[in-house]
Design brief:
The structure is a single chain. By secondary structure, the chain is mainly α. It is built from 16 helices and no strands. α7 packs across α8, α11 packs across α12 and α15 (303-315) runs antiparallel to α16 (318-375).
Amino acid sequence: MGINVSTYKAKDKASPQKKAWDSGVFKKEFTTKFSDKNRVDFYKEFSTLLTSGVDFRQALEILKNQQKKKAHKKLIADITTSVVRGKSLFEALKETGKFSAYEYYSVKIGEETRKLDKVLGELNQYFDRKMKMKRQMISVFTYPGFVLLLTFGVLYFMLRFVVPMFATVFKQFGKELPPLTKKIIFLSENFSVISLCIVAFVAMLIGFHYLNRNSEIYKAKQAWLLLKIPFVGKLIRKIYLTRFCQSLSLLLSAKTPLITSLDLVQKMISFYPIESSLNEVKKDISKGEHFSKALEKHAIYDFKLISMVQVAEQINKLDEMFERLAQQYDDETQHQTKMIGVVIEPLIIVIIGLIVGVVLIAMYSPMFDLSKILQN
């Protein structure tokens, strides 16, 4: 499939405003994010248009006119201009800074193998799956997050207004209070200070994360902690294994060499256990070792993936096998996400009940002693 741009002429020459954009002066004006949803639509429409035989220039013009945001229109216009000036689509996407290495290198492979429409279709499926997974995760954790926020509000109200009322009554009688009641009253009296300490601690954690997010040791420890979280650790592992299989399926189906595919996957997947393991995997493959044997040395890859890769190597159908594995992991991820949602909802209700119950017990237990005093 060729790229015909012979009928297209750039309408505008580079203006001072364009130079200002390139130098970064007006860059903040066009910082609207090109989201996964935008990528799904972009790759889907682009693939459909090219498959239908639409001229490359016309396809980009149609895509540009479909955009609702000025920043997105300008993005596609810049891509078109770069291609018209003789650059490949790969180079045009790379220059924008809006696309990942995985995307523009995939496009490069599509151009070289004349399977650009297929590669664009695969990129559409990749981001569509990624977006659906993200939406599902948000839907699962939105309700628990809202309930936890509500719980904090109820706890704040009780500690700031209800507990002080009981504390005043208890002081008037001068009776020794139970240890639990003393702790709740102490928490009420120092709630503002404790809240500020918690907020400061969270802020310090966030700051520490941003300062050390590129450190190899920090990324290794962070990934280790995430994978150790019950239920959530297994889910995170399968999410990244899904992306790993999807990425390799796309690249291998475009007849990309395995080492090159692993290089691109390593740039795309920002999860330390997979990133670090691929360095060793590539070295082992370069020495003549089987792909499955190289993967077997790293705990992040489960038995199912290794065994299926071993079978695929024997029948020379790695791309198809990774596509099947991606689908299986995707189904398992969706199921586990739903199960986590099912477990979290009643668990949060129990936690709320315990919090409210502890406060009420702490406040009402001295009342029984006070009633005896009043009777005497």
